[in-house]
Amino acid sequence: MMSVVAAEKERVLTRRQFLSLSGLSVLGLGFYAGEIARHEIDIVQRTITVPGLPKSFKGFRIAQISDIHFREYTEASFLKLVLHAVNALKPDLVALTGDFVSYGPLAKHRSVGWAYTCGELLTRIQCPLRYAVLGNHDCIVSEAAARDALTTHGIPVLNNASVPLEHGNQRIWLAGIADALSGNPGPDFEKAVPKTARGDNERVILMAHEPDILPRVAKHGFDLMLSGHTHGGQVRLPFLPPLHLPPMGVDYVEGYFRLGQTQLYVNRGIGTVGLPFRLNCPPEITLITLA
Predict the structure, then answer these.
(1) Across-strand partners of 287?
(2) What is the rounded distance in angstroms from the CA atom of residue 102 to the CA atom of residue 138?
(3) Half-sphere exposure of 207 toward its Cβ, with a 13 Å CA cutoff?
(4) Of 3-7, 73-77, 136-140, 163-167, which range is least confident?
């Protein structure tokens, strides 16, 4: 029979083993979330039917990327991989829906410089039609600098503005609004929607960083809204809701939604905030095909 002393030693060893294994598991999970899951790009392909879409735009493909958060914590090498994947999709339009840099934890002036580096890297996008809106982090860091970093590298920023997208003798409109949380002066839907589009009942796609403004957007009759901001929750533990969601990113967290005639797609984003971790919520490139 096993002595009392031997049994006690076995229990002690078992406890030590348990603690060691627990520690290794935590380290392993942290490594996986920070180095593997954070870099596993998920290309989501979705067909969205837009009633009244001109025939020449049937099959028009929009690649959406969002929430790059360059250098805090998205590395240049990872952003290059993302852009390579976008180019391989050969989209007709690339929509960039905000938060190119991060506010915190480092000083703002660091992020201002990184905004220009990010803009330079985005010149790797081969699609000639590429447009952006700013996010809340961009506006807090420096709205003027973030806009300049993009426009000087050939990426127009639609700030309560729109542009026609023409194909043959038909057209649709791409609009963008100022950031709803931190933009100055903020969203102006009347300016964003062209009067000619209203008068001719033309289709309008809207880029808006925060998805929870959908009820306001729907009142103005936009056909499709593209958003980011939420990161899809970023860290999703099994059987639990997201650990953290940002203001104006609580009601529409990821994927497809509809309110009235307005359809919404929320992209999970490329980067991270807070900590450089993703779990059960991979970075996303969306390829939307209009039908």
Answers:
(1) 45, 63
(2) 7
(3) 31
(4) 3-7
| Single-letter amino acid, residue 89 | L
Question: At 77, is the secondary structure helix, strand, or coil?
Answer: helix
- Six token digits for residue 20: 């060691």
Residue 189, by phi and psi: left (phi above 0), alpha (psi -120 to 50) or beta? Answer: alpha
pLDDT band at 34 (very low <50, low <70, confident <90, very high): low
Residues 195/216, Cβ–Cβ less than 8 Å: no
Mean pLDDT over the full length of the chain: 91
CA distance 120 to 97: 17
Q: What is the DSSP letter of 152?
A: T
Q: Of 2.40.50.140, 3.40.220.10, 3.60.21.10, 3.50.50.60, which CATH number belongs to 42-290?
A: 3.60.21.10
For the chain, domain boundaries: 1-39, 42-290
pLDDT average, residue stretch 52-58: 97
CA dist 76 to 173, 184, 282, Å? Answer: 32, 29, 18
Q: In the chain, what is the greatest distance between 2 CA atoms, to the nearest angstrom?
A: 93
